Every structure is written in structure tokens, then in C-alpha cells.
């Protein structure tokens, strides 16, 4: 059905005409500029014209330029991306999610909002007084939330080195507290269908998009495509202390230091790429490739 729809062989769904294909282009940003530019400059105009001739609108949601600096500073990046993904799922007649998965798990932001009951439990399970003070310093209680009061992450100033360090410390504190709060839930991190709250303390922005766009989607074999890219020898370049000054492996792989790979992020990435996605998607929806020399 959806194949015929994308090919323009059907004009209506039920009683309501659907005249749009809208999809979120999902990936980490620093490692997929070439693919994203190619799609936007060469592929999208062709597909827009193809769709127009068949009475459809074709829209690529590209989040590289969709996040205002104010929203980023207030830690709303993830929320905005998820809102756009939900919009694509609601409005698109066919495909609504396309993933380019490289070798980078990506930035893992602390949750922007945490329910008061959950935040109080995390504080109670924090390892040290310093961890509790860190969380209390950066999260403020909002009593105006619809269901129950929430704690909202305040602007830290990610444009400064100190701000970035605070985020790393907060991420570590929250993860340790979450594992202590839910000691039997670590297996949920490996379950593609799970929506356990512990996941939001380990998600990267892209990993959450993958969960919402593929792993949790009801009709993922009709609404999603995945392209998996592997750069051979990337790990060797990343740890090579004699690499050239112009080489930037940190743009393509998660690193904790100039020559140290972030093994925890890579483990989560490999589990998602090699186990979760093949488990829930038909092989026809997954394409693996290597970049051209």
C-alpha cells in the first residue's frame, strides 16, 4: 500500500486526501555533513518535483538549522527534535523517518524536565552530597506543570568549557542515581521495545529519535528507512598519536580525550546498530554502505 502511495498510484487514504510526504532526516551532525548536503542539494529537489507532478508535497525536516541558539542554551534541543519527529509521523502519508547511522552515538543531554517524584528519588539515591548539590543547583522546581510539579534544567552555558564540564558531571551523577534507583532495570537499556524511564538518562538525541522513529513505531516497516555507514580504520586513526593536525576523528566517533575512544558510547551505538535495528526492521529497510575513497 505505502509503496503504491509513494509512487503516486493512490490518491486518497480513507475519506481524507493525504497530500504530503514529510520525514525527519536523523543522524548525528558532525559526521554526516556530506550525506546531508547531498540529500538537500541534489536528491530533495528531484523528489519534490516528482511529488509535485503527482499532487503531493515532499518535505525534508532538517534539524541542523532548526534549533535556535536560545533553545539550545535552555537544553530544549531534544524536545524540539522529538516534536518534529511526531509531526512527521502525523502528517506524512508514507515515509516519516530516515536514519543515517555512522559510528557516533552522539551527545547525551541530561533530561530537560524530570517529574518531582522521580527527581526526589534520584536525589535520595545519589552517591554523594556533591552529586545532590550539583543536581539541586541546576534543576529548579516548576509547580505549573499540568500533571505534577517538575524540575526543569536551567541554562548552564554550553558555550563555555565550565558549562560543558558541568553537563558531563551531571550526566554521570544522574546515571549513577538512576542505576541505584532502578537496580534491576539495566536490561531495559538493551530492550528495543522498552520505554522504561531509565532510558532517558542514557539516550543521546539521535538514540531517542531512533527509538521513536523506528523501535517504538507501529508501522516501522512502512515508515522508516535506515542507512548504516562504516568507515574502516576509524578506530585506529582515533587513537593514533601521530595522526595529522587536520584529522578530526572526534567528528566521526565518540571520544573522551584527544586519543581515547568513549567505549561506553560505542557499546551503546553498536548494540543499537547491530542488534536492535535488525531485530525490528525488515532487511529491505536497512542499507549498509562505506564512503567512497
What is the general shape? globular
Would you count the extended β strands for me?
10
Number of helices, where a helix is a run of at least 4 consecutive DSSP H or I residues: 11
Distance between the termini: 38 Å
Name the beta content range: 15-25%
Strand order of the biggest β-sheet = 2-1-3-7-10
Parts with pLDDT < 50 across at least 5 consecutive residues: 5-15, 68-74
Helix content: 40-55%
Quickly give the structural class.
alpha/beta
Radius of gyration: 21 Å
The ordered H/E elements are: HEHEHHEEHHEEHHHEHEEHE
Mean of residue pLDDT? 88
- What kind of sheet is the major sheet? 5 strands, parallel
Please describe what this structure looks like.
- The chain contains eleven helices and ten strands.
- It has helices spanning 2-6, 33-53, 69-73, 77-91, 116-124, 129-138, 161-181, 205-215, 220-223, 234-239, 263-280; strands at 20-26, 57-62, 97-101, 113-115, 139-142, 150-153, 224-229, 255-257, 260-261, 286-289.
- A five-stranded parallel β-sheet has the order 2-1-3-7-10, sandwiched between helices. Strands 4-6-5 form a three-stranded antiparallel β-sheet. It has a two-stranded antiparallel ribbon with strand order 8-9.
- Helix 4 (77-91) runs parallel beside helix 8 (205-215).
- The chain is globular and about 60 Å long.
- 29% of the residues are buried.
Short key terms for the protein model shown above:
43% helix; 11 helices; globular; alpha/beta; five-stranded parallel β-sheet
